[in-house]
Records
---
Amino acid sequence: MIVLKSRAELDKMRDAGKVVAEILALLKERIKPGVTTAELDRLAEKECRKRQAKPAFKGYGGFPYSICASPDEQVVHGFPNAVPLAEGTILSIDFGVIYRGFYGDSAFTAPVGTINKQKQHLVEITERSLSLAIEQVCCGGYLYDLPRAVQTCVEAEGFSVVREFVGHGIGKSLHEEPQIPNFVPGAGRGVQLNSGMTLAIEPMVNAGSPGVKILRDGWTAVTVDGQPSAHFEHTVAVTDNGPEILTQI
């Protein structure tokens, strides 16, 4: 069942999204060679306490950290650790909060120092694909217009879309209906978009093949060919006036 949010509920989701955006902005500023993802995780948790918010991921399904920190070939759900970040790496951070009873969820991929042209292009195209998907969010539009925009953008550049993980509805629960793939799953256009829907749209894009595998920790997803991967995400509301990005400052 797809849950439509009232005006009052959307106000609460705006507040949750603002907390996510502010904390992710702080984390992004800290990313540089020598910093550890464990330090970034502690910072995120500290900033949640300051804002009286709860990290959405910590404890969710047994996940043990506040952020997902996924460098280079790690696609999503990477564990923060004490290994210093190396120059030339790209780092994806996925982060969410529970605030005023509602969830916010967002992700970005950032360079660690100077990165090569392939990684830079991968990051730019992944972010662009998210923007193009968000442009398709409108009342009366259809869900699969979003993955069509992502897949067309990504594959035109010779990259591939991860198929095992999808975006999702979001609200009082972290994962609500509908699921939002980043590729067109078949015939039809999917459900119609209506005002009050709130969507976590999150393209995950690989430089090489689309295949992924899960490491022994049971969480960390990596590319099967060892090529880098990038990830961007925003929580977006469907409104009568078009898309409203709730996790953007």
Note: The domain at 7-245 is CATH 3.90.230.10 (Creatine Amidinohydrolase).
---
Amino acid sequence: MKKLLLLILVISIHLFGHAQTGGTTVYNFLNLPVSARVAAMGNKLLAINDQDPSIVTMNPSLLNKNLHHGVAFNCVDYFTDAVFGHLNYIHHFNKAGTFNFAFQFISYGKFDGYDAFGYETGTFTAGDYALTVGYGKELVDSTLSMGMNVKWIFSAYESYFSTGLAADVSASYYNHKKNLCLTLLASNIGSQIVGFTDKYEKIPFDLQLGFSQRLKHAPFRYSITLHHLYTWDMDYFDPSNPFQETDATTGSLKKKTNFQQFTNNLFRHFIIGVEIIPIKYFSVHFAYNYNTRQEMKAYARKGFVGFSYGLSLRIYNINVQYARVHNNLASTPNYFTFSTIISKFSKK
């Protein structure tokens, strides 16, 4: 076990060094939630240990032997002809541990191609893909667990091609008596191997901390996720904002006070979610992502930007999940996830 922890640490440090260099971010599809439940709870890390096969790709430290033969399929009608999907299968080996095999993709559809002079060159396709192998291991009396994903990423846009390698490393603490879970996740640690051009670009690294607890005497579970922990200042001052206040004396744009800047940056790191569980086989999910609302809102009309919601229903050991996410006024994709643990059918 010490060798395993040392291996994870060495790989993380090595890849993290590469993750800090580069220019613009590529492979942003890796940030898309691979589960309707994750989407409904704010699009980021979900630290909930309740044997859900659909969330372990984003949180490999939740992998354990109880998920043996678990499968999940997620599909999203994203934009016009764009389709996003995810498929994973979990297998437990008695001596080696629990593994997760996943495939994630987003297809942007067909496009008409033209050269520099406006002549047609035919149609072409574009897409992003990732093959993931995850590993999880329970440590101290099933209260502490660790996990790691290794991802092979490749993207093809017309004649342009890129491939990269990334890893996720996570550790979770679970208290059975209090039904609370705490997870620390470093996601997308890695870099491009082959770039679209001669310039290598960094991939969307993130450091997240998730916490959840189901209340003992009430049908609720609350979830708090902190993201982008490696950076504090996430604010952006837009001088083109037509609703920006101006100083009556100088005519210059008013900037936020130090207190306003502090609270704004603080709440940008938080995602608040809640699950309502009236009965064992049904739950409703709600979440609010303040950072998404601030970045994607329209000045004249904010709407429900930053909010997400969904529901989960279990039918004969098959979990059906649905979510709707308000990324902006023009983008409210619908997520559908189906998951089960096949071994439960054989037991019956």
Note: Residues 111 and 123 are 5 Å apart (CA to CA).
---
Amino acid sequence: MPLNPASDAAPPPVDHGLLRFLTCGSVDDGKSTLIGRLLYDTRAILADALSAIEKTSQKRGLDSVDLSLLTDGLQAEREQGITIDVAYRYFSTGARKYIIADAPGHEQYTRNMVTAASTADLAIILVDARKGVLTQTRRHSIIAHLLGIPHLVVAINKMDLVDYAQEVFVRIMADYLEFAKKRGIDDVHFIPISALEGDMVVERGENLDWHQGPTLIDILEAAPLAHSEHAEPLRFPVQYVCRPQASADPELHDYRGFMGQVESGKVEAGDAVSVLPSGLETTIKAVHLGGANIGKSIVGQSATLLLEDEIDISRGDMIVARNAVPAAQKQLKAILCWLSETPLDTARSYLIRHTTREVRAKLAHITHRLDVNTLERLPAEKLTMNDIARVEFKLAQPVFTDPYAQNRNTGAFIVIDPSNNNTVGAGMVLA
């Protein structure tokens, strides 16, 4: 009897969705090597890229491939042997797609780490098994917690250099837990690894058999989806108003679609919505993508919304769930990380870009500057590069925000210097 392909075929792998994660920690803890190991062991490296790093490793006189070269792409980094900029890499397994951000370890590059952490769903904090918990380990843990990364994985690396000793792992874990308890950091998973040798990264290896927990890739595969921590209401910032003018199709003569990305929640035909800043209410008539009526769209997807009523809407407006309207803020209280080498000038105005809306803003005052090592609140009259502070801005027009702790997409903004269009600050909206 012939086989039934429908019943005998293996079921397709479950897609766990896109996971953005960050690697951070102190200098030389092995962040770049860990990412290289993940890419190498999941076979996500192209043959020409592997050949290039093999040649570079040979020129350096190394006996094996230096996997850190896969992420340390800048020439200055290769010369110094450190990571300066944030290096992003992409790979996928049968169950999930990943975007990895390799954050710099030096204190003077804290702003780069903040940039990488702002979109991460999980952070891997590396600890050198020989050195234990260091100042930069604590600093990056606090920043990751401050920026609302929901899950932390403390990977105690270089276990091969301490003879894979279980007591070293236990001691470092106890030290970190003591620090984390004082700072209110929870949801921490600990794992011993050797990024150089590959133990407990993708394969279990043979040297850490005393650790019965999942491998690092198992933890990543099982991490919750972004936006799955709690239900989020619809937030749809309008990027563009679509009005086809030259078309032979008579149905398009009166077409008015509002294009953008679903920043949170979902939207489908029949949903009751409000439009900000006007506050007018209407109903979703249709949801289009590429000219096709797709019926609904979920968070992260781009779409074109058609409304039942004629409402004057332009770029920067926001379509939201009628029963969950965000606050309209003209006094914006926030945690601000200053990114520019030029200090914050309290006498001048800046531009704040929140979703697709851009408004003039001026600093009202600095409540305090945060010492990220101790969390001590210090008085401050100005902010310099890498400073993190609680501030308040006065805005020329309102923006429509949610607290960052509730919605990272509509709770975040950037500060722009209008004289050169440089991004000089990144902020997180407080309640």
Note: The helical segments are 5-8, 31-41, 47-59, 75-80, 110-117, 135-146, 166-183, 216-222.
